[in-house]
């Protein structure tokens, strides 16, 4: 469905030196520096896959998405959806994609939501029977009926996000780009949005490209993760492969009997690649189970203090990725 080959995007930045002389020099003879926002990215996404596109701020995610949606033109390389080029086949291309940016809306602020959809119906030239059938499906999946008569400006953030997703799906696109679809939402609304995304993907086999900083979205939704850093690919695979590649992170929590003995538990002096958090009598430790065995930590703890409670669990993907971007995980 999506094909990306050797995608590159460079930006020219003018370098300004300090002081009045530097300002004049940059005005008369500017010094230009080339910044590589995206560096030689290549990947393919098959039809119906939910593709998690992740990375730290400034990694190049938004630049890549803007090239895939036709907003930016690549410096070099190729990106296509069903053989169509986003920049050269603009009108044909946009008929096959839907885009939702979490911080921006495509809805008309003062129009009732129902009227907004009617405007979009005319823009996309959707026949009446298809539009009515589509609205029934979207109402069922996204539960729009409770607020479909309300002006967009009166909608809550969660309602507006559901309304935006529906707007992007009115023309039945083959590919849906979701940029931070759950940002700023409370837990219950996030769950509703996630269920809707799963249902849309299941019912219509829609290919979904998801960028998010909420890694619970990634764990619950994505069958594949593509991670970039400084514009370059650093990982492409499943969540289980990510955990196997960058370490089996585990968490162990202790509740000590005597808060005054917490200082004796100086784990970082004896173990490498370990994170420790202290909250009163509660101690939480995150460690790489391929390098440290849980029995070692238990023996170390019991030899120094008495504990009232202990629990062990697998660490989540968020901790793995945090540690990766802090350069605390060694590559294989």
Automatic annotation (TrEMBL):
Tell whether Ligase is among the UniProt keywords. no
- GO terms for MF: ATP binding; ATP hydrolysis activity
Alphabetized UniProt keyword annotations? ATP-binding, Nucleotide-binding, Transport
Pfam family membership, one: ABC_tran
The source's domain of life comes to Bacteria
Residues annotated as domain ABC transporter:
2-255
| PANTHER family xrefs | ABC TRANSPORTER ATP-BINDING PROTEIN, ABC-TRANSPORT PROTEIN, ATP-BINDING COMPONENT
Record-given protein name = Sugar ABC transporter ATP-binding protein
């Amino acid at each position: 469905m999506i094909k990306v080959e050797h995608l590159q995007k460079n930006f020219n930045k003018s370098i300004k030196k300090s002081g009045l002389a530097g300002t004049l020099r940059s005005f008369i003879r500017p010094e230009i520096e080339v910044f590589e926002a995206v560096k030689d990215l290549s990947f393919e996404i098959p039809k119906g896959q939910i593709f998690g596109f992740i990375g730290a701020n400034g990694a190049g995610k938004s630049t890549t998405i803007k090239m895939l949606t036709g907003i930016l033109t690549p410096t070099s390389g190729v990106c296509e959806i069903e053989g169509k080029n986003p920049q050269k086949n603009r009108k044909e291309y946009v008929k096959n994609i839907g885009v939702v940016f979490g911080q921006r809306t495509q809805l008309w602020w003062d129009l009732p939501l129902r009227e907004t959809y009617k405007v979009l119906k005319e823009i996309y030239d959707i026949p009446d029977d298809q539009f009515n059938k589509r609205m029934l499906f979207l109402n069922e999946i996204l539960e729009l009926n409770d607020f479909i008569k309300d002006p967009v400006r009166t909608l809550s953030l969660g309602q507006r996000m559901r309304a935006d997703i529906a707007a992007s799906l009115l023309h039945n696109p083959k590919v849906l780009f979701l940029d931070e679809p759950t940002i700023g939402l409370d837990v219950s609304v996030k769950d509703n949005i996630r269920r809707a995304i799963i249902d849309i993907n299941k019912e219509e086999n829609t290919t979904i490209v998801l960028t998010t900083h909420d890694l619970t979205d990634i764990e619950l939704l994505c069958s594949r993760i593509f991670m970039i850093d400084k514009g370059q690919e650093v990982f492409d695979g499943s969540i289980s492969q990510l955990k196997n590649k960058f370490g089996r992170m585990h968490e162990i929590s202790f509740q000590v009997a005597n808060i005054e003995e917490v200082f004796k538990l100086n784990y970082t002096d004896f173990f490498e690649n370990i994170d420790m958090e202290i909250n009163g009598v509660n101690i939480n430790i995150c460690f790489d189970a391929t390098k440290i065995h849980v029995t070692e930590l238990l023996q170390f703890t019991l030899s120094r203090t008495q504990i009232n409670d202990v629990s062990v669990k697998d660490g989540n993907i968020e901790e793995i990725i945090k540690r990766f971007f802090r350069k605390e995980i060694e590559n294989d």
